[in-house]
Amino acid sequence: PDEIYNLAAQSHVKVSFDVPDYTSNVDALGCLRILESLRILDMQHSVRVYQASSSEMFGKVTETPQKEKTRFYPRSPYGVAKVYGHYITVNYRESFGIFACSGILFNHESPRRGLEFVTRKISNAVARISLGKQKKLQLGDLRPKRDWGFAGDYVRAMWLMLQHDKADDYVISTGENHSVEEFVKLAFEYVGIIDWEKYVEANKKEHMRPAEVDYLIGDYGKAKKTLGWEPKTSFEEGIRK
Asked: Which residues contact 227 (CB under 8 A, 6 or more apart)?
């Protein structure tokens, strides 16, 4: 291959607390196996690699907004595994000359997102409630804020990284953040339901994580300057999609 995009992962943060060993095996060691395979096959100078890093690596944030050099403080087995994948990618780039880039992607959503993730869980439930096929939407904490972008924009950023003349790491984000509550409110308003509160139930026991990430917002300035990339899809347009 000319390019490898390592998007494989157990990528559900809450599930990573239930299956931490599996999550670590796939998300951390899976990345290592790709890089080591290239080294063993002596392909490290002919193949370009993209590693999917994550804003969950920042976790309990130590700086706002989060940049490429912001200290990692992961709050889940998923985040910890992604930190390993990130640093092993840097290590193989510096040790063996592999053209390997890590994209530190903040939340990226689309209609293809699985229904177990909060954005599609919300949009699917809102659609069903508006059609009379569902009565309630159960969620955990509505307060956490995320930097939500559109996956189509972010895949373009991945590709641009591997077309550049130098391998490096980049934060990919929108530079805005919005709470889960904002997402819910806008989704209901889109289908003409204003009194959305009566359709939402809090079930913190089932939906809360043992350790939460409360506030994420990225600075994509480096990607804009170096790759000419910036997001095209607004938060509201993403919800509409």
From this structure: 157, 160, 161, 164, 170
